[in-house]
Amino acid sequence: MTTSLSYRVFKGTDFGKMIPHDDIFRAWFGGIDFLYQLSRPKSSPIRLRIQTQLSSFHFLSHILPVNRYEIADKQDFSSTLALALSTKGWVFCSVSQEDSTAQYRIDSFFRNSLVMNGERFRMTDFMSRWSRITLWHFETESIRSPQHLTRLCLQTIAENFANPQSGALRKLHKWRLLLRRSSMRNNWKTLLQDKGYYFDLATQLYQQLSGNHKGGNREKFVSCLSQSSLFLSQPSLAKAARLYRQSAQQWERLSEILIASEHVPLKEALHAIHVGNWPVEVQREQREAFVNGSGVLDIPFRLSVLNQTLERIIQLEEQGAHIILQSVHQAYEAAV
Asked: Which residues pair with 135 in a beta bridge?
């Protein structure tokens, strides 16, 4: 999936113009999270989905009142925009087409002309490019300052992350159980015994935690916390940033544990993923070569390292979320 640097849509807003560094906007757009899904379609490779960042305007809707509109046609687009832009607040647009998504700030429109993110577009041309268009109108009257909004966003990120019922930490713990307990459905101890499944998990794990997602997106959040520490005059956020920097190193290590091997198909797959050129037909050939090849994989050792690395990630990120919440609460107390 390809995405734009979505959080920069905030830069042209009233509060956004007062933000000293772009990376602070990452807090406004959701920061970090975790999602794990695994399916086993019949007669097909395993499908592993790991997301370490679930950024979207949905996140901000937990903080600000919002009206959301699914756009059906040009007339619908025009009438909805006219209504949204006639009142105070921010108007954004999220769009998608197959595996591509993008986000825009809508500044103004007149007839068939749109100004978004400071650039001019023809409405008909813009609509023809995307299969789904959603408008978001956020009410911002409750926000006192950009510092206030940034604190609210960081608080929401940390609370969501540590939520014992549905948060990222709970999902990370569940994944760790799947690495250790052979009694659980789709546990990795059993799956990795099958060479085809091993290839699937090794390549997909690396693919989803490398490139733009290297380090589990934690390095990007590190910069957000470091800049927010200065912006909010909260030195403890810099301490949280150091913990997430260590976590980013562990995520990078995690991505390579299964794929790092002397087995030629795995080495070739790693290189292809790294350079961003791994066609489906090549994937099938490499998977087949790996399944039919010889050689020993020390699966218990690799599982042990996976488990230890994930345990360390959980420890670091639990501490980081706790420090963020402490810092925000201290800021509120100081403001009273």
From this structure: 69, 93
Strand 113-116 to strand 119-122: parallel, antiparallel, or no bridges (unpaired)? antiparallel
pTM of the complete model beyond 0.85? yes
Cβ neighbours, 10 Å, residue 181 = 11
Specify the pairing of strand 113-116 against strand 100-110. antiparallel
Residue type, 143: I
CA atoms within 13 A on the CB side of 33: 20
The 10s digit of each residue's pLDDT in 27-77 is: 999 889 999 999 998 888 899 999 998 778 888 999 999 999 999 888 899
In this structure, what token pair is assigned to residue 3? Answer: 């995405």
Question: Tokens 């489906």 map to which residue?
Answer: 280
Pair 171, 35: CB distance under 8 Å? yes
- Which tokens in the block code for residue 133? 């268009």
